[in-house]
Write a structure and sequence with these properties.
three-stranded parallel sheet, 2 domains, Rossmann fold, six-stranded parallel sheet, alpha/beta
């Protein structure tokens, strides 16, 4: 079958790793798979999308991501609608199944222009992740977007659901942590103002707390470096709040590292509290420190790491993932 993944920004984040793995899983079952996306930087992407393992077509990159730094969600919706228009009326790409990732507003366009099965991949509803609803202007801005998300999500044939670094820094105070080092590693895109400003903020905070000698910042590490870091770490601290899904905790557990994550979003489904790691209140540096102290004091990181690996192999293996996706694609409505 011809399978197309419609994705807003094919970078190197956790959501992108998950959707690329989904594409590889379907390709391993003999399906023809490609991406249509609003952005794909060959110097800032996963190797499978760069080396031709899966084809990538970029559409609508010229459309702005924001208006004077605002309205990012609205612009993302419009960019995905442009990609959908291109896919069904101008691309000539044959589609039997279309996976729509993250943004559902383009689904009506796909339903009008193609008979393909539409699968919406909802990591976590966007309206549940958007903060600042107490602000009247923000509430008025979000109201039509939330309505569109609710209505268009239900138009898919099938729905798949995966229902701050600052905390980590503040937990690393002098004393019991003297023998440890904190490595902060992740995707870094100089085009994204938030990435640039947050990196500077973290560097300044480490100096303010007097722990710069215990810090190592790695921007966009390679896959080999990332694997080496996780394999040799005591634990992985995963601080994003209300993350859609978060592939990083799964990667860490598979490699034998326990995970300390926020008790919100994706990690609530992937991390078993007290078994494969710990879930802590979002933004609570003290809770993160307590969890890490428990891992070290009781020498639990080896036991939890081993249990985490078995948990991922049992529930999230590539074979199970491939079989489930293939079954979904092959099943007629």
């Amino acid at each position: 079958m011809n399978v197309v993944f419609l994705h807003p920004d094919l970078g190197i984040g956790g959501a992108e790793r998950l959707v690329v793995d989904a594409a590889l899983a379907l390709k391993s079952k003999g399906h023809l798979v490609r991406f249509v996306t609003n952005h794909h930087d060959r110097s800032h992407c996963f190797p499978e999308t760069r080396d031709g393992t899966v084809g990538v077509t970029v559409v609508g990159e010229w459309f702005p991501r924001s208006v004077l730094g605002k309205c990012q969600a609205l612009c993302a919706y419009l960019r995905m609608m442009l990609a959908a228009f291109y896919l069904v009326w101008f691309s000539g790409i044959k589609c039997d199944v279309i996976f729509v990732d993250q943004i559902s507003v383009c689904i009506p366009i796909l339903r009008m222009g193609t008979r393909a099965k539409i699968v919406f991949y909802c990591h976590f509803p966007d309206q549940l992740l958007s903060a600042g609803r107490e602000n009247l202007i923000k509430s008025l801005y979000r109201a039509p977007l939330d309505f569109l998300e609710e209505v268009t999500t239900g138009m898919a044939h099938r729905i798949l659901v995966n229902s701050q670094f600052t905390a980590a820094l503040e937990a690393l105070v002098p004393g019991e942590w003297d023998h440890l080092k904190l490595v902060i590693a992740g995707g870094y895109d100089s085009r994204v103002e938030e990435n640039v400003s947050h990196y500077k903020e973290l560097v300044e905070l480490s100096k303010k707390l007097g722990i710069e000698d215990k810090m190592l910042f790695l921007q966009s590490p390679s896959e080999l470096t990332k694997i080496a870091l996780i394999r040799t770490c005591t634990a992985l601290i995963y601080t994003p709040e209300n993350e859609h899904f978060g592939i990083v905790p799964l990667e860490a557990m598979y490699l034998g590292a326990p995970v300390v994550a926020m008790d919100s979003g994706g990690p609530k489904e992937t991390v078993v509290d007290g078994v494969t790691g710990f879930l802590t209140p979002p933004g609570d540096a003290g809770a993160v420190a307590k969890a890490m102290s428990g891992l070290l004091t009781n020498n639990d990181h080896h036991r939890m790491g081993a249990m985490g690996r078995e948990w991922v192999k049992d529930k999230f293996s590539f074979k199970n993932f491939s079989d489930a996706l293939n079954s979904l694609v092959a099943t007629d409505e």
